[in-house]
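hi! just following up on the protien thing from before. the input was this:
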Amino acid sequence: MPLDFTAIDFETANSSSASACAVGLARVRDGRVVDTAGWLIQPPPGHDRFFELNIGIHGIRPSDVRDAPTWTQQLPDLTAFAGDDVLVAHNAGFDMGVLRRACEATDAACPPARYLCSLQVARKTYDLASYRLPLVAAAAGFLDFAHHDAAADALACAHIVIDAAARAGATDVIELAMLLGVRVPQIPTPATASAPR
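and the predicted 3d structure came back as:
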């Protein structure tokens, strides 16, 4: 199997995981980035208040998303871009949480994607003082990108996994995960999600 995957990154309006206000995507085919995309999102109602802390991080303001597509309007484009790829994100628990919670908040069907965390991959690949995205990307040879721009972060994440796979001699993301001893979990569908106790 070739090294195919889609890197993804979300920015949020506030501390709610459902408050997606931007997404970035980078498609990798055979170990090369072949396409990128990114757009603003109107956070779901009830999760749409912008905190100054978050604005300070990514610079996105309520006025920027006023005419942006809603979560449910943009979800088909997001899922079409990713297709059946394994999703890769830096600190994937956060990004997969955004995907799940924004879908829950809007009663949208969450895509049951498999995913790999590039932060876990980085910790097994590089010896660094910090594993923040800019420092790991630099170790992978991807320098000077606009951190907290969702599209730029997704592209950085893609380059990290491409470099890690080359170092590990892995031909695909599943083999990379196996060689490094990291998991490739799947977002549970509502039918397979564990029942509340």
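Confidence is low (pLDDT under 50) at residues 192-197.
The two ends are 40 Å apart (CA to CA).
cheers
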